[in-house]
Amino acid sequence: MSIPLLCVALLAFLCIGLGFAVSSARAKTEVLYSSPVDPEDSLYQVLRAHGNTIEYAPILALLIFILGQSDQPTWVIWSMILATFFRYLFVAGIILPATLAKPNPMRFIGALGTYATGFALSAALLIQALNF
């Protein structure tokens, strides 16, 4: 099993799945353009989950894919796994609560974890680039 490719696939499923969820929510609510800015509106929540995922998942997937092309230390492999986990945790923290107006530990931990693992993966790629 290739952990980097599994992580890339899971991030791709998250992006595409949330895109499908947005389309489904738009069809259900018959709101085809824009959306209400209401932290309790399910369309708004899924739009924010998708928008935020599109901001972070592609660069994480690219970092993971590039790093996965060569052998990596254990900490890099764990950073890949955790980056993927934190993206899913963040999305759960947006979609599962009744409102976005209140702080949510899943959202906070997911965001903090995304930053930490994103910097770790960026550093791993920089280290790899400087070693050539």
Summarize this entry quickly.
The protein has 132 residues and is mostly helical. It contains four helices and no strands. The model has no long low-confidence stretch (mean pLDDT 94).
Structural write-up:
It is a single chain. This protein is mainly alpha-helical. The protein has one domain (3-130): Membrane associated eicosanoid/glutathione metabolism-like domain (Four Helix Bundle (Hemerythrin (Met), subunit A), Up-down Bundle), CATH 1.20.120. It is 77% helix and 0% strand. It is built from four helices and no strands. The chain has helices at residues 3-29, 42-67, 74-95, 105-130. The mean pLDDT is 94.
Largest sheet: none
CATH class: Mainly Alpha
Output the helix-strand order. Answer: HHHH
Strand composition percent: under 5%
Number of strands: 0
Number of domains: 1
CATH architecture: Up-down Bundle
The unreliable regions are: none
Helix-strand makeup class: mainly alpha
**Chain-averaged pLDDT:** 94
* Helix share, percent: over 70%
Supply Rg: 16 Å
User: Treating each run of at least 4 consecutive H or I residues as one helix, how many helices?
Assistant: 4
How far the N terminus sits from the C terminus, by CA atoms, comes to 27 Å
CATH homologous superfamily, by name?
A: Membrane associated eicosanoid/glutathione metabolism-like domain
The CATH topology assignment is: Four Helix Bundle (Hemerythrin (Met), subunit A)
- Envelope shape: elongated
